[in-house]
């Protein structure tokens, strides 16, 4: 495979080729996602929810993100691996943000970092970029700020918030980010942002007018039957399939159907 780079993603945008991105948090899943041809693998702090069972993304630590990211990196031959900076690892000041990003790059082998926010974290993003570390922005619904917003509902429906989002996206392009995620905002606004900047806009719940799409892999595989936002397309119902298979195994052990004569030494 030819490796995907931040440059190839920017080229895809200028060629009108849409970018596919999915999360992965472990070696086995990352191998499947990479082999299937997904362009970008995000080691998201959604690991806090789907891997660790926390209600929010806030509890996951930098060490835990590095563990997930290093597992993913060992599996990947083609995709660009982007790693979320977790809550608390970059908000205090630019030096902390750089230190955390350096740890991710050195200890996991990831190719880029992602941070949530706009002008509030501009200096931190610049500091990281100056060190040669590619940065992906993340605007709109930013789950690390859930206690400020109070809900996971659609963002930037009002003029004022929409204006700030456009300014933030243009600022992220200007300082040198290679892409930006827009989460759960009106499709019309997301398209307007994508049309106004030359770096790729990757949407989740942001409609089809952007340059690429991202989903949480456990959600799109249907492993998680409790989370059903409108933007989620389920490609499998693995929750049902796996529950059936595992239930069958448990029953076969009880009934002594498993193992049979051919399944032993
Ligand atoms: O952590 C995550 O999975 C994300 C995506 C939803 C963009 O940030
Ligand atoms: Na995230």
TrEMBL record:
Mg(2+) binds at residues 45, 84, 116. Its EC number is 2.1.2.11. Keywords: Cytoplasm, Magnesium, Metal-binding, Methyltransferase, Pantothenate biosynthesis, Transferase. Gene3D superfamilies: Phosphoenolpyruvate-binding domains (3.20.20.60). Its main location: cytoplasm. Its cofactor is Mg(2+). One of its GO terms (molecular function) is 3-methyl-2-oxobutanoate hydroxymethyltransferase activity. InterPro entries: Pantoate_hydroxy_MeTrfase, Pyrv/PenolPyrv_kinase-like_dom, Pyrv_kinase-like_dom_sf. It comes from the Bacteria. 3-methyl-2-oxobutanoate binds at residues 45-46, 84, 114. It holds the Pfam family Pantoate_transf. Pathway: Cofactor biosynthesis; (R)-pantothenate biosynthesis; (R)-pantoate from 3-methyl-2-oxobutanoate: step 1/2. It catalyses: (6R)-5,10-methylene-5,6,7,8-tetrahydrofolate + 3-methyl-2-oxobutanoate + H2O = 2-dehydropantoate + (6S)-5,6,7,8-tetrahydrofolate. Signal peptide: none annotated. GO terms for cellular component: cytoplasm. GO terms for biological process: methylation; pantothenate biosynthetic process. The keyword Cytoplasm applies. The active site is at 183 (proton acceptor). The keyword Manganese does not apply. It is found in: Cytoplasm. Binds 1 Mg(2+) ion per subunit. Homodecamer; pentamer of dimers. Catalyzes the reversible reaction in which hydroxymethyl group from 5,10-methylenetetrahydrofolate is transferred onto alpha-ketoisovalerate to form ketopantoate. Belongs to the PanB family. This is 3-methyl-2-oxobutanoate hydroxymethyltransferase. It comes from Flavobacterium crocinum.
């Amino acid at each position: 495979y030819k490796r995907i780079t931040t440059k190839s993603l920017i080229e895809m945008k200028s060629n009108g080729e849409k970018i596919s991105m999915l999360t992965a948090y472990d070696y086995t899943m990352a191998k499947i996602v990479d082999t299937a041809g997904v362009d970008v693998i995000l080691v998201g702090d959604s690991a806090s929810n789907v891997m660790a069972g926390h209600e929010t993304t806030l509890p996951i630590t930098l060490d835990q993100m590095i563990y997930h990211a290093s597992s993913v990196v060992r599996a990947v031959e083609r995709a660009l691996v982007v790693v979320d900076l977790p809550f608390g690892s970059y908000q205090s000041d630019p030096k902390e943000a750089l230190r955390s990003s350096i740890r991710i790059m050195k200890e996991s082998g990831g190719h880029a970092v992602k941070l949530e926010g706009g002008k509030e974290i501009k200096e931190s993003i610049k500091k990281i970029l100056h060190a040669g570390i590619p940065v992906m922005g993340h605007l709109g619904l930013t789950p690390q700020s859930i206690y400020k917003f109070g809900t996971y509902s659609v963002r930037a429906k009002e003029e004022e918030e929409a204006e700030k989002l456009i300014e933030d996206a243009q600022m992220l392009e200007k300082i040198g980010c290679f892409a930006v995620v827009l989460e759960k905002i009106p499709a019309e606004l997301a398209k307007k942002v994508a049309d106004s900047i030359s770096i790729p806009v990757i949407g989740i719940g942001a409609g089809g007018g952007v340059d690429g799409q991202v989903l949480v892999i456990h959600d799109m595989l249907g492993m998680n039957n409790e989370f059903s936002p409108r933007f989620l397309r389920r490609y499998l119902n693995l929750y049902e399939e796996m529950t059936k298979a595992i239930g069958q195994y448990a029953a076969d052990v009880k009934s002594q159907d498993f193992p049979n004569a051919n399944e032993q030494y």
